[in-house]
Amino acid sequence: MRLKRTGFGWLLLSPTLLLLGLFGVFPFLYVVWVSFHEWNPFAANPEKVFNWANNYRALVFDRGFLASLGVTLAFVFFAVSSQVILGYLLAQAFMRDFPGKAFFRTIHTLPLIMAPIIVGSVWKLMTTPSIGIIPYLLRNTVGFDLNIGTSALAAFVITVIMDVWHWTPLVTLSLIAALVSLPPDPFEQAQIDGADRWQIFRHITLPMIAPALIATVFIRLMDAMRTVDEVLMLTGGGPGSATRFLGVHIFKEVFPRTNYGYGSAVSVIVLYLTIVVCWLLYVGLIAPRTTRR
Amino acid sequence: MATVQIRGVTKRYGGVQVMHGVDVDIEDGEFVVLVGPSGYGKSTLLRMIAGLEEVSGGTISIGGRVVNDMLPKERDIAMVFQSYALYPHKTVAQNMGFPLLMQKRPKAEIEEKVRKAAEILDLTKYLDRYPRQLSGGQRQRVAMGRAIVRDPQVFLFDEPLSNLDAKLRVSMRVEIKELHQRLRTTTVYVTHDQIEAMTMAHKIVVMRDGRVEQIGRPLDLYDRPANLFVAGFIGSPAMNFLEGRLATRDGRRVVETADGTALPLEGAAAEDGRRVTYGIRPEHISVGEGGIPVKVSVFEPTGSETLIFGRLGGQLIDALVRDRIEGEPGQTLPFRIDPRRAHLFDTATGVRL
Ligand SMILES: Nc1ncnc2c1ncn2[C@@H]1O[C@H](COP(=O)(O)OP(=O)(O)OP(=O)(O)O)[C@@H](O)[C@H]1O
Ligand SMILES: [Mg+2]
C-alpha cells in the first residue's frame, strides 16, 4: 500500500497525536520534572528549586506515605476481590430467567452512571451518626453503634462497601457480556463427561471467561488505586489516617499544603506501583496462558 | 455395554409437543442409526437419552435401569456433538483425558488411556495442540477420542460427520464402523444422510415428526418400506412414485395411470379400482425392448452409470442404468420395469399394500 510509505497516514493521525501530547504526555512529563524539585509557591521561596531525588528519598521515610500505601493496598484488595466475586455471582444470576429480571438488571447498573462526588456525598448522608439511615438501622436492629467519624475500622469498611456498591455493576456487566458469548456445547459436553457444578466452573467457565475477567480486574485495580473524590467526600481520609488512601494523600499534600514537588513525587510513585501490580497480575495470570500455546 | 429401551417417550416444549410416543429397543452392542429429515426430533431423542433434555412422558432405560431422573454424569454415556464441542482452552490430550480427570482417576492411568486412544485415532502427533490448531477431521477424531477413553455403556453421536467434506465423510464413516467392530459398544447414531444410515447401521430407525415410521435392518427398509415416507427417504436416487388405479388387463393385475399406461405388477392383494401409488426404484428400471415408452427430458451420465429423467403422462420417472446411453432430450425410450421390484402403497394413507 502506498499509504504506508507516504506520510499521509501520519497526517491523519496528527490531531489525535496532538491532543494526546497536549493532555497526556506533556502533563505527565511535567509532573515527573516537578517531582525532582522543591516547589511550594506559598513558601518563603516560591521558585522551583532542583533538589535531585530528595522528594523520593523523603518518601521512603515518610510515615504518612507508608501508612497511606498500606491502607490503599488493603482497600484495593478487599474492594476488587469482593467486586469480582459479587459481580460474578450477579452475572450468573442475570443469566437465568426470573420475573422482573430486566428491571433488576437496570437498577443494579444505576450506581455506574453516578459521579464519584455524588456517591461520596450520598454515602456521607447515609452514614452520618445522627441523621444517617445506616447507623439508625444498625442501632435499632443489632444494637451496633456505627460511627465512621471515630472508628477507624468502621470508616475503612464503609469505604470498601461504598466502592463495592459503586463498581460491582461494572464487573457484572462485563462478565454478563463474557458469559452470553460462550458457546453452550462445551457446558453440555462437560455434564456428559461427568463434571459437577464446581468442576464445570473451574475447568470450563473460568478459563473461558478469563480474558474478560482479567481485563475487568485490571480496570478496577487501576481505578481503585487512584480513588480520591468519593473517599474525600465521605471521610476526608479520616479518622486519623484510616482512609487516607494514596489519592487522598496526594490531594492533601498538593492542595491544602501546596507542596507541589512532593505531591508530584507521590503521584509518580503511585503510577509506578499501579504498573507493578498490573505487571505482577499479568505475569501471574496471562503470561503462563499465552506461552503455553 | 448395555441395552437401551425407549418406551412411549414423549417430549413437550411448553405447549408444543415434538415427540409423540417413541418406542425403540436397542440390543447390547448394536449400532442403531436414527434418520429422518431435519427438525423431526432426532437430536431431541438423543439428548433425552443423554440426559441433556428432560423426558415429558414414557421411560428410557439403559442397561435395565430407568434413567429418566438421572443426571447425564450418572448415565455412563459418551456423546459426540455435531459441533464436536471441544474445550477450546485445553490441549488435545487434556480434552481427551477430561472425562477421566472428572472421575479422579490417577494421572498415569489417564495418560496411558489417552495415549492408546490417540494411537487408535492417529492423533499422537497432535496431543499438545489446541483445538483451533486442528483441521475439521482431526477435531472430529478428538471428540471421538474423548468418547472412547471412558469406555462408556453407550455411545451417542449427533451427526458427527455433517461438517466434513464428502471425501473425509466417507473415510470417517469407515473409521467409526471399524471402531465399533473393535469396541462393540452399543451406539446410537443420528444422521439425516441416508447413505450413512444404510452403510453403518445394524438397525435403522426412521423418524418423522416425532414419530417412528419404521424400524428395521437397512436392506429390509430398502426392500420392504412400510410406507411412502420411508420408501421415499431410503435409497438414492429416490424411488419413483406413480399414481394410478388397480386394474386387471388381459387377466393380469396392473396399475393404470391417468393416461392409460399399464404398470406391471406381480400379485396384488387389493381390489380393482382402488387408488394406489406405484413405487419403483430408478435402479430397477432398464432400457430395452418391450418397455413402456417414456419421453426423456434429461440425461445425466456419471461415468459408471446414467441417470435418465423422463415423464410418463404428467408424472416424473427416472431410471438409473449401468449402460452408457446417449440420446437427445425429447426422444422416447422404452423403460422396462421389473415387476418383482415394484412397491404398492395406498395413496390415501401411504401404507404399503
Ligand atoms: N428448546 C426448544 N424449544 C422449542 N422447540 C424445540 C427446542 N428444541 C427443539 N425444538 C423443536 O423440536 C423439533 C425437533 O428438533 P430436533 O433438533 O430434535 O430435530 P432434528 O431431527 O435433530 O433436526 P436436524 O436434522 O436439523 O438436526 C423441532 O421442530 C424443533 O423446532
Ligand atoms: Mg439435530
Tell me what you see in this structure.
The complex is a heterodimer of chains A (293) and B (353). With 293 residues, chain A is an all-alpha fold. Chain A has two domains: 24-61 and 261-293, no CATH class; 73-258, Orthogonal Bundle (MetI-like fold). Helices cover 74% and strands 1% of the residues of chain A. Chain A contains 13 helices and two strands. Chain A has helices at residues 2-5, 8-34, 54-61, 63-95, 101-109, 116-127, 133-141, 152-180, 185-192, 197-225, 229-234, 246-254, 260-292, and strands spanning 37-38, 49-50. Chain A has a two-stranded antiparallel ribbon. In chain A, helix 4 packs parallel to helix 8 (152-180) and helix 4 (63-95) crosses helix 10 (197-225). The radius of gyration of chain A is 23 Å and the shape is globular. Chain A starts with a helix and ends with a helix. The model of chain A has no long low-confidence stretch (mean pLDDT 87). Helix content of chain B is 24%, strand content 36%. Chain B is an alpha+beta fold and 353 residues long. In chain B, strand 15 (285-301) and strand 16 form a beta hairpin. The longest helix of chain B has 18 residues, at 166-183. Chain B folds into two domains: 4-233, 3-Layer(aba) Sandwich (Rossmann fold), CATH 3.40.50.300; 240-346, Beta Barrel (OB fold (Dihydrolipoamide Acetyltransferase, E2P)), CATH 2.40.50.140. In chain B, helix 2 crosses helix 3 (107-120) and helix 2 packs parallel to helix 4. Chain B is built from eight helices and 19 strands. The radius of gyration of chain B is 24 Å and the shape is elongated. Chains A and B meet through helix 9 and helix 10 of A and strand 6 and helix 2 of B. Bound molecules: adenosine-5'-triphosphate and magnesium ion.
